[in-house]
Design goal:
The protein contains 27 helices and 30 strands. With 800 residues, the protein is an alpha/beta fold. The chain has a seven-stranded mixed beta sheet with strand order 23-24-22-21-26-29-30, with helices on both faces. Helix 23 packs across helix 27.
Length: 800
């Protein structure tokens, strides 16, 4: 008996929905129906041990990101406030900047305080060097040096005079000349002296020259000593001047030892390099110039890497492009005079830094396809620190000196989002994956379509409608959305949890409601959105059906033919699918029990289809030639198929057309058949049942319904039926029929009009049954085979 019309579609009665429109419904969270995944997320987020990061499994379109964001925002209050992170100069090793950890919101304050400190130093230090006290002490040191120099030369001059030698100061230095009666003698007078006198004078002059030389050699030491005194004076003056500035800062940050240590180092460096603050003193008096001069002292500034001052809750960071630099940060460079330079102020943080203390969300496939990103992420999680690396360094492409910033300690939960295939591949081929991502959160794709869940689903629809800011839906519109959800899922007993598809349908329905100037979304607007979405992708289906109707591709929908049957297939084009009938033919003859799958022979048949052909071959051999060789050679082919064939849903059609070819039994062309089969002849469920039925119906309807046309389908697929209204109306009129079968014998009876036949007490099938006719043909072929065998034996004897 054909299926009744009410079993072809599971309606959602608007009268059973206890509301007028969705504004009356309490909203549900986006993660409705995901109890299993939520338990896993709570466990993964709550456990603090190493390696318990999370992988969220779910197919595309589940709305994983939005769902997870909503859930995490409710969990962030359970975590401590995140820290701020900043880099400061390492005065002992400038290429290894130090990292500072500060309470939430304090990093920016420290940065501002240090900039203000530099401004204060630029004002205070030049002022100190202009003070009368400093000038007086500077003059004292200078006078002391000058006095020491004058005294030393004066003493040497008196000593020379006592020895009748005059020490004269000339533009080029000092010179010595002999004296007679306190007067310098001329060269003629010197030559007139006796040799002993000249020798004595020359000896005195040479001795004094050595003393003068020693004195001149001492002068650089005196200069150095005076400079040290100047430097000590400057440091003493500056230390007193800047002490108050740094004392106030150190008091403000007294609870943070690392900051206090940094301030002490800055103070010491300022004192040691005080001359840098004395340059261009006139510029420092202008406020604008003063702020510009702050940038001349990057070594004292604070580079805020992460600022959580805006919201002191656990950060939730989603990195859309998880490249190596976007994950771990980078060190930037500046071009100066044709060379690239850098310092700690050019260090930029990555997603790991921003999410530190909270949650980092990453698309698994994006991380895996970005060079070096996956390995870098694993290293960070294993070491529990974020160490900034560059691709150039990893590949040793450059040898220029760069920074080695101190790594940032990590306290983070990484949540990967991806499909199940990627998850199981990582489990199988990456040994580190199981150690780092120990918590799988498996999202449900569907939920049972019970009365309670139907109402819950309506509340979910109301939540999405409110969130997207679209018009409310009335009862009938909600019911139609629920029905469409079951159809998209290809299961009348289930509701889909693919939020993206649901949201798209609501938004498109709202558009058509707007076109109609309606205040609410009604069933007509939802139906219009469904039809419009189908029409946008329907051109290929129309062309395929047109080729059948024009008999370019041959498909009969009337009459009876031997070894020819209408199979059903589904074309899947992205998210759009449609069905179409396909002619399957067979040929059978005397042979050695082999069924030739032409599709496989030419490499157009997939593995599952080849498996199905082997199964039906085994079924035929077991039923009709269990205790003897099967004397049949047969071939199967999908006519006019020019692409790949895959799947086992044509098994019932293939076994029927094979038996038709063996026994010369005509098959009704007004019926199309789909279904898988096992070795015991049981018919099994297949996919795409709604599209297959509608595809054959559309061809029959276009040619004119005769009242005996229909589809033979597995009984197990009855629960999946959500057919379109045009098919249901035809069934109600008796113009089209749908038959549900559980065994191959039921299919044979429907498709041939003959009883399939059962074994009697003599272990024989009735002669007028399908099985009886097949058995009779096989018996006849066995006799023919024996005759050929005897003839061949006699021929061999005659040859001997």
């Amino acid at each position: 008996m054909p299926l009744p019309a009410d079993s072809l579609y599971r309606h959602c009665d608007p009268a059973n929905l206890p509301f007028g429109d969705t504004t009356e419904l309490e909203h549900l969270d986006n993660y409705y129906g995901q109890d299993r995944a939520l338990d896993a997320l709570r466990f993964g987020l709550g456990i603090r041990h190493e390696g318990y990061n999370i992988y969220v499994l779910g197919s595309s379109g589940m709305g994983k990101h939005e769902m997870l964001q909503d859930f995490l925002h409710q969990q962030t209050f359970d975590r401590p406030k995140p820290s701020d992170w900043c880099y400061v100069n390492n005065f002992s090793a400038p290429h290894q900047p130090k990292v500072l950890r500060l309470p939430c919101g304090l990093a920016q304050q420290l940065r501002k305080d240090m900039e203000q400190c530099i401004e204060d130093l630029l004002v205070t230090i030049p002022g100190v060097f202009q003070s009368a006290e400093y000038k007086a002490r500077l003059n004292d040191i200078s006078d002391a040096f000058n006095d020491q120099e004058r005294q030393a030369f004066s003493e040497l001059k008196e000593k020379a005079k006592a020895r009748n030698i005059s020490m004269l100061e000339t533009p080029s230095g000092y010179t010595l000349a002999p004296l007679v009666n306190d007067k310098i003698i001329t060269s003629e007078e010197f030559e007139a002296l006796s040799d002993d006198e000249k020798t004595a004078i020359e000896q005195k002059i040479n001795e004094l020259k050595e003393e003068l030389k020693g004195l001149v050699q001492k002068m650089p030491m005196w200069v150095k000593a005076s400079r040290e005194q100047f430097k000590k004076l400057n440091q003493s003056i500056v230390q007193n001047a800047v002490g108050q500035i740094f004392r106030e800062l150190q008091n403000c940050y007294a609870d943070y030892p690392d900051v206090v240590e940094f301030l002490a180092l800055v103070k010491q460096d300022v004192i040691e390099n005080v001359d840098a603050f004395r340059e261009e003193e006139e510029r420092s008096s202008v406020p604008e110039n003063l702020k510009n001069r702050v940038h001349e002292f990057p070594m004292y500034r604070v580079n805020v890497l992460v600022d959580n001052g805006g919201a002191c809750t656990a950060p939730i960071v989603y990195e859309n492009n998880p490249s190596l630099s976007n994950l771990l940060g980078r060190v930037e460079h500046e071009a100066q005079y044709g060379t690239l330079t850098t310092d700690f102020t050019l260090i930029k943080g990555g997603a790991l830094h921003r999410a530190n203390g909270g949650y980092l969300l990453l698309d698994a496939i994006k991380v895996l396809t970005n060079p070096f990103a996956w390995d870098a992420l694993k290293r960070a999680l294993q070491s529990r620190e974020a160490r900034i690396e560059s691709i150039d360094q990893l590949l040793s492409l450059v040898s220029t000196k760069s920074l080695e910033p101190e790594p940032v300690p990590l306290d983070i939960k990484v949540i990967l989002l991806g499909d199940r295939t990627v998850y199981y591949l990582l489990q199988a081929y990456d040994p580190d994956f199981n150690l780092l991502f120990k918590v799988p959160a498996d999202l449900s794709e569907e939920l049972p379509r019970t009365d309670a869940n139907t109402l819950g689903y309506a509340r979910l629809i109301a939540s999405l409608q409110h969130r997207k800011g679209i018009r409310p839906l009335d009862q009938s519109a909600v019911a139609r959305v629920i029905e469409q959800g079951s159809r998209l899922l290809e299961d009348a007993q289930k509701l889909p949890l693919h939020l993206n598809l649901l949201t798209d349908l609501l938004c498109e329905s709202d558009y058509f409601a707007g076109q109609a100037n309606a205040e609410q979304i009604g069933i007509v607007h939802v139906q219009a959105a469904i039809e419009a979405a189908s029409r946008r992708m329907d051109q290929f289906r129309e062309r395929v059906h047109e080729s059948i109707l024009r008999e370019i591709q041959l498909v009969d929908t009337r009459g009876e033919y031997v070894a020819q049957i209408n199979g059903l297939s589904v074309y899947q084009l992205g998210e759009y699918a449609f069905g179409r009938p396909t002619r399957i033919t067979a040929q059978a003859r005397l042979g050695h029990g082999k069924v030739l799958d032409i599709e496989r022979e030419v490499k157009l048949g997939g593995n599952i289809h080849s498996k199905a052909v082997l199964i039906l071959s085994a079924f035929i051999a077991n039923r009709y030639a269990r205790d003897r060789p099967l004397p049949v050679s047969a071939s199967l082919v999908f006519e006019q198929s020019y692409g790949g064939i895959e799947g086992d849903s044509a098994s019932v059609a293939e076994i029927t057309v094979l038996l038709s070819a063996i026994a010369d039994i005509p098959i009704r062309q007004s019926l199309a058949v789909t279904g898988s089969i096992n070795q015991h002849g049981q018919v099994q469920a297949i996919g795409g049942i709604n599209q297959k039925i509608e595809g054959f119906y559309d061809i029959c309807d276009a040619r004119g319904l005769t009242g005996d046309q229909g589809v033979v389908m597995p009984a197990a697929n009855t629960q999946h039926l959500m057919l379109e209204e045009r098919v249901i109306n035809a069934v109600k009129r008796g113009a089209f029929h749908i038959y549900a079968i559980s065994t191959i014998d039921e299919a044979l009876t429907l498709l041939t009009g003959l009883p399939a036949g059962e074994l009697n007490e003599q272990d024989e099938y009735p002669a007028d049954s399908v099985n009886g006719k097949v058995m009779a043909k096989i018996e006849a072929w066995i006799q023919v085979a024996r005759k050929f065998s005897v003839d061949n034996t006699r021929g061999d004897d005659r040859a001997d």
